[in-house]
Amino acid sequence: MADNYAIRVRGHLDVRWSAWFDGLTVTTHTDGTTLIEGPVADQAALFGLLQKMRDVGLPLLSVTQLS
Amino acid sequence: MAGPLLETKLHVPRRRSELVSRPRLSERLHRGLGAKLMLVSAPAGFGKTTLLAEWLAPSLESAWLSLDHNDNDPATFWTYVIAALRTVSPEIGATTLALLQEGQPAPVRLLLTPLINDLGAGTTDLVLVLDDYHVIDSAEVQEGIGFLLEHLPPRLHLAIVSRADPGLPLAGLRARGELVEVRAADLRFTADEAAAYLNGSMGLELSAEDVSALEGRTEGWIAALQLAALSMEGRADASGFIAGFAGDDRYVVDYLVEEVLKRQPGHVQDFLMQTSILDRMNGALCDALTGGDDGRATLEDLDKRNLFLVPLDDRRQWYRYHHLFADVLQARLLDEKPGRVAELHRLASAWHAANGDAAQAIRHAMAGEDFDGAADLVEVEMPAMRRDRREVTLRAWLERLPSEVIRVRPALCNALAGTRLSTGTMDGVDALLQDAQRWLDEPADGMVVVDHEQFRRLPAEVAVHRAGLALATGDVDGAVAFASRALEIAVDEDHLSRGAASALRGLAAWGSGDLETAEAAYAECLVHFEPIGHIGDFFGCSIAHADMRLTLGRLRAAADTFETALRLASRQEGAVVRGTADMHVGRASLHYELDDLAAARRELARSLELGEHTALPQNAYRYRVGLAEVAAAEGDLDAAVDLLDDAARLYVGDFSPNVHPVPAVRARAWLRQGRLADARGWATQQGLSATDDLSYLREFEHVTLARVLIEEGNLDPAADLLTRLAHAAEEGSRWGSVIEIQAVLALTHQLRGDLPAALASLESALLLAEPEGYVRTFVDEGPRMATLLEAAAEREVAPRYARRLLAAFGTTPAPAAPGLVEPLSGRELDVLRLLATDLSGPEIARELVVSLHTVRSHTKAVYAKLGVTSRRTAVSRARELGLL
Prior knowledge:
Strand order of the largest sheet of chain A: 2-3-1-4
Low-confidence stretches of chain B: 812-818
Structural class of chain B: mainly alpha
Strand order of the largest sheet of chain B: 2-3-4-1-5
Strand content of chain A: 35-45%
Oligomer: heterodimer
Order of helices and strands of chain A: EEEHE
Mean pLDDT of chain B: 89
Number of helices of chain A: 1
Largest interface: A-B, 19 and 26 residues
Number of strands of chain A: 4
């Protein structure tokens, strides 16, 4: 079963990145961070997602599993 | 390799010089020449590749390899590593390449030892750069790099460039000072470097405040500074731009790429986005995607303006985008034209297919979710992939295809089943083979066949795989049935199926003790493997074949098997074929039986000399069993038992039945040492009993048990057991086994005081043994056998042969005179043998793949045990003792 994850990165990311992150929701916050959240199929998909963030140099702040 | 070797991967990616010289980092890398590993680890766009390429430029010998996802197949990875090294020394790695192209995938240690030896032969420093190492996630490749690092010749320096730290023991390397690192914090431009870049290289004439603001906003991230510089080129109000940028919260790259793109004409923006899906591109490929005809001109223009294009060759034909830029462009493409992405991938796939790069064509077809197209390509490519031993890549492709696509393609069902079987996975194999079989039985609409030549061979291949599956799951009858079926239906020139089916049928017969059928089937399989160049399989089967002939009591025929194999080996060009060493060990055991101990030793020495890379995995233990046999015959039972301990530790199984288990061989040696309790312990542990039902697979152990019973004085149970064993062996025509069993039975009768029965048993053994000239089977039974043979000779029972055997008792050398107080260990013997060559200490270390320190401590131990103080005297003393 897919779990919901929230991944926080530093900097404001345009909503247009949503498609690149497999349709996850991209929301910017006033503290200068961006939250990327939504269902992630499994651990392999989660690591794939983190790898994508690494590859565009996004500074990772936190990864949280939502309920 | 499927497809040509891409030279672009070996090209040092030198960017045009708008570079800032960075002496502080080059100096650190230079220190790396005193360490084992240079690690440049930082996120994308930190100038890692540029730093390495610039540092290497002046005088250092270097080999460069830019990695991509396909390099997770060890065969591909090491082929490219050798290709890179060959840009420096064209001869390097011949043996490793030969091993890569062989039957079974070689274990890392075997594969890399010859390469490491080749590299160690040179003297000048050589830097091997592995760029983009973060794409490597294969455990096998990582293991290989770990092994290389552990045994790195002093001249070689490994430089790993990666976005993530590699899975190597970095903490240990760091602690031993063997690691030099350059990380993100080191790579960031300092304020001075930023100023030198922006005002010097780019000629922007910015104020100190502006430079500082940019440096702060980008945190010295080089890619961001480059994007910023591109955004400002030719702009009147640079300060205004910087203020706007610095006051914005947007992700640096997002903001800047937008700025750069905004300044490009519409057709260039389109070009960049559409081609962003490519791993590498030339003008024609770009045209195929954009539908235009100015691809080459556009690439040249982008290159001139330094718009994140990396040239991949000196002629500036092939390029790639800087990875970071490509990713941002792709993110925009996905957002703006989501429907176009799949189409672009399909166009890229078609172009690569038409231009002979199947791997890229398949990658793009999959990325474009054109799984039918991908499956077509995979089916056509399969024979080449198998021939080049790239099963890992082939399996990855097959596993990625959706099951509904596989299911309608009998060739792919069969191939996926085959790749799973060869890696020991049974999951879904039965279902896949049944799917394939259903199409073959009733070809119907909906079945997809691309390669009709392969399809003709498919029925036999499916039957072979079903036989393999049956055998793996213990269904011997099923295995025989499917293998026979495969032989019936295989087309004449399909040697692979015919050979594999014969081997499987032989294997099934072997396991059930029907050695005559097994022997004939293996002879058949050898005939098929030879013409198709499956030399590794040929040698593996030759060992089994000779073993069967020995059990059948046909010593001379077994010798023929080894002769044929060695003749075939000598006809191969290039490096010595893997399996050659095994043939010499096999021959040693034949010489041994004929009581030519010197010849047996010569063959064993030859096997050792040829080296581990010429041996199949089982040779390490077989060699020691062979040497133990000779040592015991020469009276050094302690050394024999040591060797057998090593052999037991080094034993590796394969699909052949283990009919002469090392622990049983060792129990026999214990008996000769008088260690009856240990031998009994072995028998108990194996759960052996004199009243067991008999099966060929335990024949050797049961004969060993009978020997234990005799020494314990349990003569009646021993005689009963041996009588039953003799009947079973006779029924299976296992005359080699019968000879030994009757000989031991003769001794049992003799001990019971029943001389007529003893002589009757001995006579049947002698009659079977004489034509083939057996000696050691009798001589190894010791004085009791001598007494019995004398009685036989007196009573005219095979008198001539009996007298010949009696003569052989006298010639066995007496146990080495004063002997050794403490025997040499297996490893010490290895060192001793190499001390007798003219190899230097470091060369011996490399040969044995241990450190120089280890060699020295073994050498010291050898000297101490032999009571000598120099290498020369050690060798002469060892010769006296018969250790060499």
